[in-house]
């Protein structure tokens, strides 16, 4: 961390930083588009689930903050997109879930042996967890 340069709001570096960040997002979006196009043109389009998630990314000056480590609720939320057979189009939920339980969820949906908690039932509203995400090791 000793090599990090301070960025002031009036610094030209600030604009370059934000443009670079947005360029990286644009590039990732284009690559995801390529994968989805290839999938839609393949024989696997009707039996393949697509799952995209990320960390919460960097703060770009919100509340004067330029990093990742904050205690704000927004800093603990991440994008999560899930599409495929059996997944309702346009569905969304405000239910709290933990990304650590995604792998066991996908394993179960693929009828494989799993270990962990199935977050799919949480997204369906079958389980009420009162907005609390709990992680444990068995």
From TrEMBL:
It is an enzyme of class 3 (hydrolase). Its EC number is 3.1.6.6. SUPFAM superfamilies: Alkaline phosphatase-like. The gene is betC_20. One of its GO terms (cellular component) is cytoplasm. Residues 16-110 form the Sulfatase N-terminal domain. Pfam families: Sulfatase. This is Choline-sulfatase. GO terms for molecular function: choline-sulfatase activity; metal ion binding. The lineage of its organism: Bacteria, Pseudomonadati, Planctomycetota, Planctomycetia, Pirellulales. Keywords: Hydrolase, Metal-binding. The keyword Ribosomal protein does not apply. The keyword Hydrolase applies. PANTHER family: IDURONATE 2-SULFATASE (PTHR45953:SF1).
